[in-house]
Amino acid sequence: MGILFNNWIKRTKDLQTDVYYINFDDMSGGKDANIRRLIEYMRWNMLAIDDELAEMRQAISWKPWQHDKPYADREEIVKEAVDVLHFVANIIVAAGGTDEMLDKFYIEKMERNKQRQLDGYKVKEIGVKCALCARAIDDVGRGASPDMCAKCLPKEVDGNA
Q: Rounded to whole angstroms, how far apart are CA atoms 44 and 27?
């Protein structure tokens, strides 16, 4: 059971399966057709997230050229954020994520972000971001070169990396 998110991922999977008839088994494994279904499902959800964020943007006076009195409809912001989270959870389920994984990764990321700030995080310094993919090297590990992440240039290249 996920502690932080209280079975959020399991409940999302149940909703998608029972109400929307999404078959996540059709998106798992390495078959090309399954990967295509996974990509399509994730794309739909990413587009929905974009749409919900656009709706959230309407709840604040974000335009610098706007002359209205500044406003922020906090309740609407929270409602739209919940909509965003719904689609984020769909993506996590489709990728095979679980509540336990989410708890673990979320806590690890919070701690890593905290440490980055305490250490004076500077993304332009060599060795902070991967020179090839721009991932944060401390998220995935350092590769064989100090400016490459372990996913782009593994330390040991033996055919099994």
A: 14
Residue 157 has pLDDT above 60, yes or no: no
Alpha-carbon separation of residue 123 from 43, 75, 118 (angstroms): 28, 34, 14
Q: Please name the CATH architecture into which domain 8-121 falls.
A: Orthogonal Bundle (1.10)
20-40: per-residue pLDDT in tens?
999 999 999 999 999 999 999
Cα maximum dimension of the chain: 62
Q: What angle do CA 112, 117, 122 make, to 5 degrees?
A: 100
CA angle (142, 144, 148) in 5-degree steps = 55
Measure the CA–CA gap between 125 and 67, rounded to whole angstroms.
40
Q: What's the gap between Cα 117 and its chain centre? A: 20
Each residue's pLDDT tens digit, 83-95: 999 999 999 999 9
The residue to which tokens 């500077």 are assigned: 122
Whole-number Å distance between alpha carbons of 33 and 30: 8
The pLDDT tens digits for 96-111 are 999 999 999 999 999 9
Burial of 154 by CB count in 10 Å (0-12 exposed, 13-18 middle, 19+ buried)?
middle
| Cβ pair 8, 90 in contact under 8 A | no
